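Researcher: We're teaching a course module on how sequence relates to structure. For the next exercise, students receive a sequence and then see the predicted structure as tokens, so they can try to spot secondary structure elements on their own. Here is the exercise chain.
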Amino acid sequence: MAIIRKKEIKSMPEKEREEKLKELKLELAKRYAPANKSGKIKAKEIKKAIARLLTFKVNTQKTK
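Model: And here is the predicted structure for the students to work with:
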């Protein structure tokens, strides 16, 4: 679920991107919960997806 492609991000409306960003941040927080010690690879994928969303957000703001 965490893997998001650039073309998927482009096709999303702004509101949906913001919701996805919040959802991914919440999922990342759950991954780092002390009770869940496995899933480091999944956390890495989530971080990459968050970075892609934030990068796209910054780039679109610069072009406006």
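Model: If you want an answer key for the exercise: The mean pLDDT is 84. Residues 6-63 form one domain.
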